[in-house]
Fold this protein.
Amino acid sequence: MKIAMGSDEKTYLTDFVIKELKKRGYKIGLFGSLKSSKKIPWPDVGAEVAEKVASKEYDQGILFCWTGTGVSIVANKIPGIRAALCFNAKTAEGARKWNDANVLVMSLRLTSENVAKEILNAWFSTKFDDKKSSRLRKVAEIEKRYLKEA
């Protein structure tokens, strides 16, 4: 699995998640401040990672910013992206199971290494419940309706 990972700043948490993903055998593309030594604005990072996932260049994305809210908002502006801000394993599990989320978002401020590992475990071990497909079709219809108006 190929994962696009980006952040507006490089921290202990981003370094930990990179190591954890490599340990699990995932191929990782780094974006934003994880690729560059300078701070990259969160709107730019959120859009770049989401575009990589939406284009199918990467299977999934992982984003970080201080609260996680900013990159979530930006990522969800990209058609086909379902970014989920996860603060614990249960949220990650639900995002995958019920929403087929394709971009995981974590807060740099609030997420510890232990919690990040639990979130990753839940995210990558949970499969989408196909019984929820009709709801995702509705989301896609709403997205298309607003794309036409833009």
User: Anything to note?
Assistant: The helical segments are 12-23, 42-54, 69-75, 89-99, 113-125, 133-149. Residues 4 and 29 are 5 Å apart (CA to CA). The radius of gyration is 15 Å. The chain has six helices and five strands.
